Fold each of these.
Amino acid sequence: MVTLEDIMAARDRIGDQLRITPFQASPSLSQIAGGPVWLKCEYRQATGAFKLRGATNAVARVGKVAGVTTASTGNHGRALAHAARAKGIPAIICMSRLVPQNKLDAITELGAEARIIGDSQDEAFLEAVRLQREEGFALIPPFDHPDVIAGQGTLGLEILDQIPDAATIAVPLSGGGLLAGVAAAAKALRPDIRIVGISMQRGAAMAASLDVGHPIEIPELPTLADSLGGGIGLKNRLTFAMVRDLMDDLILLTEDQIAEGLRHLARDGHVVEGAAAVCAGAILAGRLRADDGPLVLILSGENIDPLRHAEIMKGTP
């Protein structure tokens, strides 16, 4: 398992390459949740998402390789492209056809190759494995990797630095790298803190795997929270067990509830992607409360297609 010491070492290693992202109180969500709600604006990282933490830490620990590769729903790929360019090495990002065009464009603008493979992240991952095996690339998975988890865990340290009395942290949940890292850091420092994972009902692989007690494959479906799509890997080594052991509650949302979260945050000045809006959506749906003390929502990314966001704001599901 990734430890507090691993996460602190990651903070020392990459701290000068990241932004300390701001907090903002949300009076409207606080009123609905019955207590103080704070928004951790992680979408203000240089690549528009928290993924920069894990990718930067992992690339910093790579030796001499032909390049780096991964499978991604977009945000990890963009972060890896950014970190690879900073280190001066090539990057090939493997993605499925479900990844929105704006995320593909952001990756290629950073000088990486965006390689489209199949209809799921699991299929794209097979190409990343081939690049590792046959062409000497370092494979940096989007979540199930100790350096990636430790990098994401620096966000947990930052949250408690800024809101030391936080009672609950709500974390968007996909493959579990963010939740595993944040929970490992936060619970090591504050064992009583609650960690709540939030995901979508359509194709949440971690939720389905937790239900049966081991990693499984499920169909990857179109969703407003596209960054939360993809499998967790049948041979998952770290995040499944860490999420299972460290998460206190799990909430799954409908597409309409995610859309309502997007609209509410946009009215408060936060134009984010669907995956970043699930925590607000859970409050609006009456599923998440702040009765026990300050509730921190991680706004994980902003990389939504502007035209799609405009449709959602008009009420189109």
Note: The chain has a mean pLDDT of 95.
Amino acid sequence: MPETSRRGLLFGTAAVSAGVLLTACTSNEPKEAAATDSGPVASDDKPGKAVTIGFAGPQADHGWLNAINDQAKSRAKKYSDVTLDITEGSNDIAAQIGQVETLINKKVDVLVILPADGKALTQVGLKAMRAGIPVINLDRIFSNPQAFRAYIGGDNYGMGVSAGNYIGQKLKGKKDAKVIELAGIDGLELTQQRSKGFDDALKNYPNIKKVARQAADFTVESGQAKMAQLLQAQSSFDALWNHDDDQGVGALRAIQQAGRDDFLMVGGAGAKAAMDAIKADNSVLKATVLYPPTMAASAIDLARTLGQSKGISGLAELEIPAQVTLYSAVVDKDNVDQYLPTGFR
């Protein structure tokens, strides 16, 4: 997501034009803020009504998920009127449901939930909403829209589109160009969406053909093993899209061990290590497509705004949007300095 949209929820026209999809709430619930002569009351950084935000996410066993927790904590500390009650996090569905139910019983003002499994956590989201606790659904969406008041997350399909178009432009003048793909876990819908977006974007470039694809597991070890297999099977190609910067660390190891430097590589997610490599410009890695964990900071902003019954500066509506979809920006050597502060470890 572009820098104009990440530093809080002051979503004005700059954020919308940069690619943030805002969907207004269409429910019949009461208005959350009263209009004044100068328009609706908008959220700002000035202290207001005290808000207790419950935050429940999966276990931080991945660089991106760890960054999610860090973003939520650091954002909450910015506000003297926000108390953050964050759970330990678990990939066990029953355990996470229990953690959310504990927050419901504590009667927090707003819940932010990044479910380990959106479908499996839908019922507890519904339970919170029926208890009068509005839910901000973060990233992995519930199967029933009644289980959340607002959703904020990344655009997996858009990641694939951005990667495909970036590679397409780089190979635009090359005849019979070949690309390969190092995907994530194939059983996950997000992986399928990223691959579909990539394939759809490549259709814009008839000179390019995808000749191979391997699925890894979002880990360094799997990235190295699967990349080694791709390199053995493909003696020549022009570009690689790797879905995830963590597994990309392993992929780069395999590439270096094979002594290959005859193609360009595009990563995914926006890890600091990837951005450092892009800035150094001493490897095949030339770009990464963002799936920014700063969405957790924005979720805290949304929750605070909702808890204080305010709207968002720059929008005419009295309520916060029902959906916020982040833009999948491409970071390369031309703009890496702008995005480096947002890179996660």
Note: The longest strand covers residues 208-215.
Amino acid sequence: MQNTANAAGTDGPELVDTAPLIEDLYPALAKLREAGPVHRIAGTDGRPAWLVTRYEDVRRLFADPRIALDKRHAAPGNYSGFSLPPALDTNLLNMDPPDHTRVRRLVVKAFTPGRVEKMREPVRRVAEELLDAIESDGRADLLAAYAGQLPIIVICDLLGVPQRDRRDFRAWSDALITPDPARPRAAKEAVGSMLRFYTELIAKKRAEPADDLLSDLIRVRDDEAGDGGGNGNGDGDGDGGRLSEDELTSLAFLILLAGYENTVHLIANSVLTLLDHPTVLQELREDPSGLAAAFDELARYEGPASLGIRRFPLEDIEIGGVTIPAGETVLLSVASAHRDPAHFKDPDEFNPHLGRSGHLALGHGIHYCLGAPLARMEMETALAALLRRFPGLRLDVPRERLQWRPTIRARGLISLPVAW
């Protein structure tokens, strides 16, 4: 591997083929990790990117202030990514301090452990209702009927999204996260639909506020704008506690998308992992209190995020003897870091009793997942209800027939057929 590449990403090391990362993720990552700490690949937007594979490097770069999330720091022609309008793109996944600090502070109180714990009983009731609906069938696609339903109900209830408006959200999310090559316009259409959805929803909440997170955020936005904290036209200047209209809409978009997408696959992947490990499954069935401790190992072993959010160095940085020029795209391989034997003992084995610590499934540093307490609670509650209700839970297809979504961005099943 050459030691450098030009800032535009047109020259430099030969690109590593990403097909094995889709076909057989963990063995492919092991080969890359053993070969070196950094590799040049075709990124999620098809353009060259640097993939960081080893735990210590990935963890350090998550918190390194020398690499930015804001796409304005990408070198010209280096990155395209999602084509989102400002009303959806002005979110925490594209922000650095001080904007990131300001906007995060406005929403973090919604996800404190204490506030999330108050939601546990309502979430348990939703889980029981979803299981009631499928129990007599004896079999189901658990991803579609349960793991894919619970998070959207929970996050929509938190934001105050009416039930009638929830039906299209999974299709929009899938179109963005896992684009269908046969439908090249689907992602663009989904973006347009989501922008209309959030714009109309905020207008309704502004006219008729309720006791929900989105109404609270609208009050913060409008009160500050009225007090000189913004001009009411989406042009907040980023000082103090100001929130622009684009930031408000983008926050709603991010909370709903992230709160849905990652939790769906965290639950489904965890169910599959437990079905693959019947001894642990039985232990947790007999003592569901162990789910809290098992969360970290489940998130490490088969977490939903293969990659961290793309980043852009503000200056040339060196990783393992490789110089990455400023402005090039850096991808942090969480999935590879989680299987790094230099940090985790026997990393390819699932064992919640080892007390492994330091997983990066929820990020690290200032961009640590805002909804981490909610994700933990939802997964624990979902699994506890499922294991109690369906003691005979088993896969309904041969294990080798299960299919993973064809993307290097995320780790999620297409379906999870089970019987009980």
Note: Strands lie at 38-42, 48-52, 67-68, 139-141, 312-313, 317-319, 322-324, 330-332, 394-395, 417-419.
